């Protein structure tokens, strides 16, 4: 008799991969995180990809002032190492409420297919699909588009894309995919990208990756996410993990929209994120890198109403204002 299936990969009990290839995803997660009740923001869900049954959540301020003000659009792509996470999770929901109210913007929070059932590039493909959904809404804004997007209250020429962790990785690849001016998305115009501790990898270890571990994150977890999410047979130097790997696209001739990069000084990903910003700046890209002293991974989305989160909101406001023309 063969042995019973046993766990070979365990992501904090939320996701477990068994020796026979079966996968368990918990539907009863103890987040120990209260859901914020912000009555100033309306939200609802929308099926944007029928093929893969993918939804997004829209957030809109209840009142818009002045009356002639048009809401900018902020895409928020959640994190989770490409393996876990959802627009429905309390941390993502609270974060989007804060972004919508703090930035006076319409926030679009799409889900994407998760690994290991759907390895990369599935998540990136879904990010592209979500952007193309917005383009379709813009083209139909005067005839049959979504009510919130066809009311004349939003500005399709003022779109910003923000990604947290693995969502930041997706945001980077969207910036490269669409290029400066995002002409392929017309009449949608992306003005800039905000990367919050983007999840990049590489075979060579960085000093920050080697420790010390964070409260909720360690190198073993990072490596596990990469093992589960990379295409079969690939490693952490794959172009989807390492933007400067041996087989990665040369970004020097690629025209990119402005990028704002935020990271905590105590994050395992700090050195890799800092190097990303440094190399793009050396290439002449318009990129700004800001480090938050003493902060660990998830400091904004896990506590979006904190003092440091207020600072993040102000930085994003300034970034949006500087790149709105």
From TrEMBL:
Residues 74-300 form the Alpha/beta hydrolase fold-3 domain. Gene3D superfamilies: alpha/beta hydrolase. Belongs to the 'GDXG' lipolytic enzyme family. It comes from the Eukaryota. This is Alpha/beta hydrolase fold-3 domain-containing protein. Pfam families: Abhydrolase_3.
